Amino acid sequence: MNNEASGHPYFRLTYRSRDLIPAPDRKEVLGELFSEARSRNKQQQISGALLISDDCFVQTIEGEQAAVQALYERIRNDLRHDSVVLLAAGPVDELVFSRWSMARVADDLDEPDTFLLAGKDGISPAASLRPNTQQEAFLDAMRAAARGEGEFAVAAAAAEAPDRPVGRGGALAM
Q: Cβ(44)–Cβ(64) under 8 Å?
């Protein structure tokens, strides 16, 4: 089904996975991955947010359905993480993160989210970007999902049922 057939112009997908990148290598590997993903996702008109909490990733990706689903398939097959669980997916009327190329979402409410810009010299914080009310609510749901709580947790529990296979790990992208 394409976006037009559903009557909704966009598609949004959220998943949770377990990070397999060794801690000493994580900053460098994620930095390289963010740079590659930002360029590729800009070309594909994909936006979203990534939460990194201990060894857990929760990511929302949104854009044209075929592009989002193709990215998710690459993510499911990437060996840098495993235990990929689809938390939510479906057509939507608007993009929550349309102005974001990427962001590091803090796992603790006392810690600020970091909105990132990728340039020739690497990734740096974009101090002028702040979430709106809708984005903040979505980010809170992602934080809860990282803890196994909240609205996404119900979908995750159903997806992890023993009679339903869970995909292999994947590439992070924003």
A: yes
Tokens of 40: 């590729």
Ordered alpha helix ranges (H), 15-172: 23-44, 65-76, 133-146, 150-159
For residue 49, the cross-strand partners are 60
pTM exceeds 0.70: yes
Dump strand ranges (E) for 37-142. Answer: 47-53, 56-63, 81-92, 103-105, 114-119, 122-125
Distance CA(76)–CA(167), nearest Å, equals 6
Is 78 within 8 Å of 18 (Cβ atoms)? no
Instruction: Give residue-wise pLDDT tens across range 42-67.
Output: 888 898 888 888 888 899 999 999 99
- Tokens encoding 171: 């590439």
